[in-house]
Design goal:
By secondary structure, the chain is an alpha/beta fold. The chain has a single domain, classed as P-loop containing nucleotide triphosphate hydrolases (Rossmann fold), CATH 3.40.50.300. Helix content is 39%, strand content 26%. A hairpin with a 2-residue loop joins strand 1 (4-15) and strand 2. The termini are far apart. Helix 4 crosses helix 5 (116-126). The strands form two sheets. A six-stranded mixed beta sheet has the order 6-7-8-3-9-10, with helices on both faces. A four-stranded antiparallel beta sheet has the order 2-1-4-5, with helices on one face. The structure holds adenosine-5'-triphosphate (ATP) and magnesium ion. Adenosine-5'-triphosphate is lined by residues 13, 15, 20, 22, 40, 42-48, 199.
C-alpha cells in the first residue's frame, strides 16, 4: 500500500458562472519515504493537487487516501499531524506580526503538546537557524531564512508527509540550493515522504525519485529519475520541458567516467 493514493482526482472550480477544470482524472501514488514530483507549465493544476489534499480545493471527483484511509472533511487535527504543506512564498505564509517563536509554538499549543520552549529552539537548530531568531519577526529575516522558518513550522508536529509547492522558486539560485539540500537532509533523517511541485525540471531531477508531467490539468507522463536523467521521455510535451531545463541538469554521460 502506498502512503499517498490519488485516484482519478478531478477538481473543478466554479467562478462567476464559469467552470475551470483545474485537475482532470489524475492518478498517482507515493510510497512512504519516496520523493515524488509534479512538473508542468503554469496553470497545469500542480498546486491544485496539493491544495485538494489539504482540503483547500474541492474534490469534484475521484479520491485521496493517506495511509489507506480516505481523507476526512474537514481535514482536522489528525491530518495536520501527518501532512503539512510548505508554500512558495514564505513571506505570505508567515504571519507578519507574529514572532517566529509564536509561529512555531502555535501548532504545539493547538495540539496540546508541552515542552514548547525546547521544541522551538530545537526546530530552529534543525533548519540551521540560531535560537535567538525566536524573537524576530518575519520582516527581519532574509527570504531563505523565512523559508527555513516555514519548513520548521511544517515539521513542528513531526508529520510523515510534506507537500512542497515550489518551496524555493522565490529564492536566489544559491539560497535555493541550500534550502533544497536542507529538505533533502531532513527527508533522509526523518524518513519523510515528499510530494513536491516545481516548474523546474532541474530541481525535480535533483530532489525526486519519480515525477508526473502535467499539462492542462491532466497527467501527461510519469517518469522515474533514471528515465529523466537518460532523457527517455515518450511525449513531445515532456521532451520540450526537458529541453528547456537540460542545460541545468546533470549530464549522465559526464557522471560515469
Ligand atoms: N480558487 C480558484 N478558483 C478558480 N480557478 C482556480 C482557482 N485556483 C486555481 N484555479 C485555476 O486552476 C488552474 C490550475 O491552477 P494551479 O494553481 O493548480 O496551477 P499550477 O500548475 O500550480 O500553476 P503555477 O505553476 O502558475 O503555480 C488554473 O487555470 C487556475 O487559474
Ligand atoms: Mg502553482
Amino acid at each position: 500500500m502506498s502512503l499517498i493514493e490519488i485516484d482519478n482526482l478531478s477538481v473543478t472550480f466554479r467562478a462567476k458562472g464559469r467552470e475551470v477544470r483545474a485537475v482532470e482524472a489524475v492518478s498517482l501514488t507515493v510510497a512512504a519515504r519516496e520523493s515524488y514530483g509534479l512538473v508542468g507549465e503554469s496553470g497545469s493544476g500542480k498546486s491544485t493537487i496539493l491544495r485538494a489534499i489539504c482540503g483547500l480545493a474541492p474534490i469534484s471527483g475521484g479520491s485521496i487516501r493517506i495511509g489507506g484511509v480516505p481523507v476526512a472533511t474537514p481535514r482536522g487535527r489528525a491530518f495536520a499531524a501527518r501532512v503539512q504543506m510548505v508554500f512558495q512564498d514564505p513571506y505570505a505564509s508567515l504571519h507578519p506580526r507574529h514572532t517566529i517563536d509564536r509561529t512555531l509554538s502555535e501548532p504545539l499549543a493547538i495540539h496540546g503538546l508541552s515542552g514548547s520552549d525546547a521544541r522551538v529552539v530545537k526546530a530552529l537548530e534543525d533548519v540551521g537557524l540560531p535560537a535567538a531568531f525566536r524573537f524576530r519577526f518575519p520582516h527581519q529575516l532574509s527570504g531563505g531564512q523565512r523559508q527555513r522558518v516555514a519548513i520548521a513550522r511544517a515539521l513542528m508536529l513531526e508529520p510523515e508527509i510534506l507537500l512542497l509547492d515550489e518551496p524555493t522558486s522565490a529564492l536566489d539560485a544559491s539560497v535555493q540550493a541550500e534550502v533544497l539540500n536542507l529538505l533533502d537532509r531532513l527527508r533522509d533523517e526523518r524518513g519523510l515522504t515528499f510530494l513536491m511541485v516545481s516548474h523546474d525540471l532541474a530541481v525535480i531531477d535533483h530532489m525526486t525519485d519519480r515525477v508526473l508531467v502535467m499539462q492542462n490539468g491532466r497527467a501527461v507522463e510519469e517518469l522515474t529519475r533514471a528515465a529523466l536523467a537518460g532523457a527517455r521521455m515518450t511525449t513531445d510535451y515532456a521532451r520540450s520541458l526537458f529541453d528547456a531545463s537540460a542545460d541545468r541538469m546533470l549530464d549522465p554521460a559526464k557522471e560515469a567516467p
